[in-house]
From TrEMBL:
UniProt keyword list: Cytoplasm
Chief location: cytoplasm
SUPFAM superfamilies attached to this UniProt entry: alpha-catenin/vinculin-like (SSF47220)
Lineage top rank: taxon: Eukaryota
Protein name: Alpha-catulin
Recorded family membership: Belongs to the vinculin/alpha-catenin family.
Pfam family, one: Vinculin
PANTHER family: ALPHA-CATULIN
Region (Disordered): 1-20
InterPro entries: Alpha-catenin/vinculin-like_sf, Alpha_catenin, CTNNAL1, Vinculin/catenin
Gene Ontology terms: cellular component: cytoplasm
Length: 763
């Protein structure tokens, strides 16, 4: 089903000056938001200038320069917007209207700020910013609204690309389902792999660009499904081709195709912000979120005794206590936990009754004694809810810890592989029953963990884990039955291995998820952005012989543990430095945070934890880390163009050092190696080079922050941005290939022209 990209775009933006863009528009991506920041800052500065009786020539010239800079930047911005319109006819009409509005608003601002040549800028004969402040505000609002519309329309092109890429993947999947020969399958799967790589890059960029953390988590979950299912689709399809009359092989293959289609559809729902048939997404309420909201309402009574009714509070508590039944009704909750939860539920009802009684009295008569009684009732109610939260957390996490420890040996999976290879159908049936029991336990564990996860992204991760166990369990069973029916089949054996690895991988991920949930509960920083990747070029080549990635043994992990610890300490240092920046959306900060997040996932690898499971995963992460470092170096060079401080030389030296390190890491990560010893040497080199780059990053961040602070203090270490060069547009419009056009005419192209505006210093 092709979805229209139009439904996803919109913008709402406001600033301290009261400037607001179209209320019907909503900014959903960081790239659009960050592109607007310099424009909003400059216009806000212009409008908030202090009206003084005497204005110096310097002040008048500064105001005029800003007005002209805005008008020129908008003119160039509009030129790019018009070029985008010409390349995308379905957006041409809307884009043209927005461009005309932006150009008109820019010209108005230039006229109103044309004050430097006037002897009396406030005279009635010439309307200026001093005589018509309202006119400037109106023009500024129109400008922000129209520029935002242009950006959002450009963003639709990105959405359209993702939809087109998804449609290509779906079309090729349909061909794969219908093939009847290995030769045809090899050809089509090769095409499918390339299309999945393209889809991976587009959706990965979109995931990192999304502002909404919940949507980010959903996108990550969908992309993780697609990553795992690509290998499953390969082996399941090969098994079906080898054994065309085997019903269990067909069921196994159909399950993979169905799951991939659902994941592809979810990606499009997230990207377009729509649901099929206009349905609203009904997110299940967790006990944690219910308790948090309930406590907020209760504590709000201190400020206002009349803002809600007692029926509202009673209903909220009833919903929370209904959810606790998931624990008390579960066969896997211990007797001790069940009793404590029931006792606390009963106590919560009593505390609320007491609170309501005092609350009603306080509404009728606000005496000091009654207000003190109300405070005591609020504290006791909140304390009881905290104890309930602690009890359900303990129940869920202790169950999860016990189950993960119990299933860590994967005995049922090993037995299925052995009995399936022996062709022992009776034994396979026995172990499939045990796997079904294990699946039910793990699904229940995920449901209970969701209630205590603490954050929406972790809730979504729990839901994803539950779905994975629900789906993968029956797929392992059908793969085992196929092997039992064809015990000498190498491809059936390989297929079962792939599904068992997916199960083991999800169990490993659950250990990390449990750790993160405990971190959030205990107030530690439990969430680090982790970069997920889909199949890479060369991972599934045309001959269908995928290289088996290497895992480090215990001794090798011990050797790199010291390096990993150093890397961990450096990520903490970088995080501390980035937190000192007032502007968290600064490009240097963003790249620094991205590098820190990736370095953290590499540190987890040294401990045998996290989402980087194999050396191939680590090498790919190192490549992305180096690419992010190159982007940071580019941002530093752009920043240095505006610096004429004594530290500029040091900044450029460090940036050049970073570029050199990025190239070295790229070469190391891409170098082909064979054998366990060579692989370990490569792992060691990648982590060492990553550590060295993080050390440089720790020196760069405070230096850049210092330069920015000097500028704010008025020491003048920043000079005006260089003028925008006209040849940029010519370069863009002379490009003929669709790939380069996409690169030139999009959010990035528009960012360049807005960002090059000159800032007016506040004095």
């Amino acid at each position: 089903m092709a979805t229209s990209p139009c439904s996803s775009s919109g913008v709402s933006s406001s600033s301290s000056s009261g400037l607001g863009a179209d209320a019907g528009l909503e900014i959903r991506t960081r790239s659009v938001e960050q592109t607007l920041v310099p424009l909003v800052s400059q216009i806000t500065t212009l409008i908030n200038h202090k009206d003084k009786p005497k204005r110096s020539d310097k002040t008048l010239q500064a105001i005029q320069r800003v007005g002209q800079a805005v008008n020129l930047a908008v003119g160039r911005f509009v030129t790019v917007g018009e070029a985008i319109a010409n390349e995308n006819h379905e957006l041409k009409e809307e884009m043209s209207v927005a461009c005309i509005e932006a150009r008109r608003a820019g010209e108005t601002i230039a006229q109103l700020t044309d004050v430097a040549s006037l002897d009396h800028p406030e005279s009635d004969s010439h309307i200026t910013i001093f005589t018509d402040k309202t006119g400037v505000v109106k023009a500024a609002r129109l400008l922000l609204s129209s520029v935002t519309k242009v950006l959002v329309l450009a963003d639709r092109i990105v959405i359209k690309q993702i939809i087109t890429s998804r449609n290509k993947v779906l079309a090729t999947m349909e061909q794969l389902e219908k093939v009847s020969s290995f030769q045809e399958f090899v050809q089509i799967f090769s095409q499918f792999g390339n299309e999945m790589v393209e889809f991976a890059h587009l959706t990965g960029d979109r995931q990192n660009d999304l502002k909404d953390e919940k949507k980010k988590a959903r996108m990550a979950a969908s992309r993780a499904v697609l990553e795992k299912c690509t290998m499953m689709l390969l082996t399941a399809s090969k098994t079906c081709l080898r054994h065309p009359d085997c019903e269990s092989a067909r069921i196994n293959k159909d399950g993979v195709f169905h799951r991939m289609r659902l994941a592809l559809e979810q990606v499009i729902e997230i990207v377009t912000d729509s649901r099929p048939n206009g349905e609203n997404e009904m997110a299940p309420i967790s006990i944690y979120s219910g308790i948090k909201e309930f406590k907020n309402k209760v504590e709000g009574l201190r400020e206002n005794l009349y803002f809600l009714s007692k029926e509202n509070l009673s209903t909220m508590l009833e919903v929370i206590l209904e959810h606790t039944e998931d624990f008390t009704d579960s066969a896997y909750t211990s007797h001790e936990h069940r009793e404590h939860i029931l006792e606390l539920s009963k106590q919560a009802k009593m505390e609320l009754e007491q609170l309501v009684s005092v609350w009603i009295q306080a509404q009728n008569q606000k005496t000091k004694d009654l207000m003190e009684d109300l405070e005591v009732a609020i504290l006791k109610t909140c304390q009881c809810m905290n104890e309930l939260k602690r009890e359900v957390h303990s129940a869920a996490t202790s169950l999860a810890a016990d189950l993960l420890k119990y299933h860590t040996d994967h005995m049922v999976l090993k037995a299925l592989k052995i009995t399936g290879g022996e062709g022992n159908l009776e034994a396979v049936a026995e172990y499939t029953c045990k796997l079904s029991e294990q699946k039910e336990q793990l699904v229940e564990m995920c449901r209970l963990l969701r209630h205590v996860s603490g954050t929406e992204p972790l809730e979504i991760t729990c839901i994803h884990a539950e779905d994975t166990f629900q789906v993968t369990g029956p797929q392992i069973i059908s793969a085992a039955e196929t092997l039992a029916l064809h015990p000498t089949s190498k491809i059936a054996k390989e297929n079962l291995e792939v599904f068992c690895e997916a199960w083991e991988s999800q169990l490993s991920d659950m250990s990390m998820l449990l750790r993160e949930i405990n971190d959030v509960f205990e107030g530690r920083r439990g969430e680090k952005r982790v970069y997920l990747s889909l199949p890479r070029p060369g991972k599934h080549n045309a001959n269908l012989k995928a290289l088996k990635p290497v895992k480090l043994d215990t001794e090798e992990q011990a050797k790199i543990a010291k390096l990993g610890l150093e890397l961990h300490l450096l990520t903490s240092d970088v995080d501390s430095e980035t937190e000192k920046w007032e502007d968290q959306e600064n490009e240097i900060v963003q790249h620094g945070q991205g590098m820190s997040s990736m370095a953290y996932s590499m540190y987890l690898f040294t401990r045998g934890e996290g989402l980087l499971k194999t050396t191939q995963d680590l090498f790919h992460q190192a490549e992305i880390f180096a690419a992010e470092g190159t982007k940071l170096a580019s941002a530093l060079h752009a920043f240095s163009d505006q610096v004429h401080d004594d530290d500029k030389t040091l900044l450029l030296l460090e940036a050049e050092k970073l570029v050199s390190m990025c190239k070295q890491l790229q070469l190391t990560a891409k170098a082909a190696v064979q054998g366990k010893s060579a692989t370990f040497t490569k792992v060691d080199a990648c982590i060492l080079k990553t550590r060295n780059m993080m050390t440089v990053l720790c020196q760069l961040l405070p230096l850049c922050c210092k330069l920015l602070r000097k500028n704010k203090a008025g020491n003048g270490c920043l000079k005006p941005a260089p003028p925008w060069r006209e040849d940029r547009i010519q370069t863009g419009t002379n490009v003929h290939t669709p790939e380069r056009r996409t690169e030139t005419f999009g959010i990035k192209a528009l960012e360049n022209h807005v960002t090059n505006m000159t800032f007016l210093e506040r004095k």
